[in-house]
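re: that chain from earlier
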Amino acid sequence: MPDWELPFTLSLHEGILEPHIDLFLDPGGISRLITFGTYVSGWELLQKGEEVTLLRKDDHRRIYMNYEGVIEGKGSIRILIRGTAKINASPESLSERTELRATLRDGLLHL
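^ sequence. v structure.
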């Protein structure tokens, strides 16, 4: 199966009881963003080239691909990195997964 590429944003959601990292994947079109999350420490591991497990979350609004700032009543969000994610499955199949394993290499997020 060929690799697919999707735009992604990795954001830090803080100022809440359980700060975390959100991975937003843009499948294109007008659909919501496919979203996965992990602990804050996952960002440090990704920067070291280590593999991180992300768990499926509810899809998010498209605004989060580019949004930084306060989310009223829900803390704040800050973009850590944006770029291209390479996946070895179709974008449609990502919505059905309960978790992803990710590594960051050569500026690409590999899923």
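DSSP finds two helices and eight strands in the chain.
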